[in-house]
Amino acid sequence: MSAAPPAGGDALELEAELEEPPQGVQWAATQRAYLRAIIEEQIPTFRARPYIHDQQHLLELLAAGLATTLRDEFCWSLCFQPAFVRMLCHEGFLPICSEIANGTGLYVLLPKLHTRRCVLEFGNVRVQKSTRKRARGFRMSVNRAFARVMEGCVEQHGEDWLHPPMRAVLSRLHDWEQARHGVAHDGKAAGVAPAGACGSAMASFELWDEAGQLVAGEVGCVSGRCYTSFTGFHRVANAGSVQLALTARLLERASFAFWDLGQEFEYKAQLGAQLWPRARFLERFHAVRGQPSALHDVSLDAQLLADPAQLLGQAGEPAGSEGPPGQPSMHDEVDDD
């Protein structure tokens, strides 16, 4: 059953939840200032990076030209408010989490704004013949298993940048959007909830086999007509390639302008992605982040999601050539600090 849409008071409670950081990173302003001073004193890299206090400070820095003056790809922050992370996504940053020295339990946020962004425009998508054949027997879903997909990512890649505070923030943002629009947390009631007031919402894409097992998936962020991949996983050989191809066609069917794949990897280029300089990416991103997509409707089309041949065959593009053996079949945004 679908959760009932929240009443006025409940909606305010949901909004208030986005101002509360998860357990373990709930620092008062004075504590954050103290931690910041220690970190910058001990780690020179952080002294050279812009520090972002909170949402208001982010807006001030952007107004002052942060996107054009940022020399490194990273800023940093000790603010883990979900609303702040959502705003970072809305401004084109990837919200990466890092632990200060392994095992300390001290986490920082590393908002990343690439100097070059790997972007896939759907007219350039290349799907290998072998991927088309392997897609038979799989089915796709959207926003049905967000938590399980994150678990799969940690299972395959380790925590990497998906440390506990970041997983908690992303889960809260996803659940908040679903609850705000009367969608059950498992996504069964109504597919994809529309984006929030800032125009960005967390999402997951899942690939299932004929036995109903989750074999691949990814999590990311929808900002209007741009979808940004965060990380993904696969448990079965070639399932990652199938999930990538089907996700590309789902996004195309849902009227997305382009797919932001983040960091450059060879297999992304083989799919048809190109590198955009930061200025070009941000110009295009800002132009489409406020435009609605049709992902909600597409996510409810059970017949389409269960028919990979229909999805992969709709555009009629020529199949790409086979890539080299051993090519990675799933993407992942990494902290290359």
Overview of this protein structure:
The termini are far apart. The model is unreliable at 1-9, 185-197 and 314-337 (pLDDT under 50). Helices cover 39% and strands 17% of the residues. A hairpin with a 5-residue loop joins strand 5 and strand 6. The strands form two sheets. The protein has a seven-stranded mixed sheet with strand order 4-5-6-7-8-3-9, sandwiched between helices. A two-stranded antiparallel ribbon has the order 1-2. By secondary structure, the protein is an alpha+beta fold. It contains 15 helices and nine strands. It has helices at residues 8-17, 29-42, 44-47, 55-63, 66-69, 82-90, 129-134, 146-157, 164-180, 239-253, 266-271, 278-288, 295-299, 302-305, 308-313, and strands spanning 94-99, 107-112, 116-120, 139-142, 200-208, 214-223, 226-234, 258-262, 274-277. One of its GO terms (molecular function) is leucyl-tRNA--protein transferase activity. Keywords: Acyltransferase, Cytoplasm, Transferase. This is Leucyl/phenylalanyl-tRNA--protein transferase. Pfam families: Leu_Phe_trans.
